[in-house]
Amino acid sequence: MGKIFIDACFGKETPYTPVWMMRQAGRYLKEYQEVRKKAGDFLSLCHSPTLAAEVTLQPVEILDVDAAILFSDILVIPNEMGMKLRFASGEGPIFDEPIKSQEDIANLLDPQESAKKLSYVYETIKLVKKKLPKEKALIGFSGAPWTLATYMIEGKGTKTYTKVKKLIYTNPQMMHSLLQKVTQAVKFYLEEQIKAGVDAVQIFDSWANALEKPKYLEFSWNYIKEITSYLKAKYPHIAVIVFPKGIGAYLDDIDGEFDVFGVDWSTPMALAKEKLGNRYVLQGNLEPCRLYSKEATKECVTSLANIMKDGGHIFNLGHGILPDIPVENAKYFVNLCKEVSKTN
Q: Nearest CA to 321 among 23, 113, 12, 3?
């Protein structure tokens, strides 16, 4: 499976285990901040193919990672489904009119039409592919339906998930209705990214650990499986990555048609290898805060290399990189991963 994935992304095997940085990699780069100022605001940056392509390429050019990760935001999907999105300083993304009723769901734009409205994302992909070295891959992405629906119902980020969990337990039919519509939009969105030229796609389920196991499987994982099955049936040559954050206790029930399982930093890599390593390539696991210290970074990278010495692993962080990580430390991480994997 590891060779299949590497071949799909690079067209050939790399001489070492591939390494790239988790999404949000640009936030700590001064070059990113300069482009962000030029755009004016975050959403305008997402909507500008020229500027979005520029920041997509920055981590590749500066850090020499093996793949670029498309610059965008997971919430462009509900935004183009008709929900007004804004980013407030210190608060993050906000939907001022969140989903409250079945009528609100019915009023969302048709999933396929919504995907077509995301043309600025596909244009960004085409621009990146023109400039990206042939030996580098481009990874597209989407939020998982559960994570997207949570934002759509809560209206913003949450620590309690009160509104969305209340809906799950009191009106599961309505929740499934929303998830079904969002799932269709994600399918079409990732399909259009593939048509535009990405080499792999990743599905981020950032709020996976908000649900108890049976509810997670019902209201999130089953929809992720539906998306991955759809994509692999139509585009078997495209690598599909899933990243459900914080579900290390649920690994016995993880299955589906995908190539790579992203292991968050809270899940022991040895456990993930035991449960999933014979079926999927494993990605990530390094605690992002380790990048504050080169010594701590080396300790973890060496440990991961030893655990995964038989292959089937992609070096990456176990969640998004933090904005105040020194660039020198990020470069050290990338170079160390390449060096360690060559000697294993």
A: 23
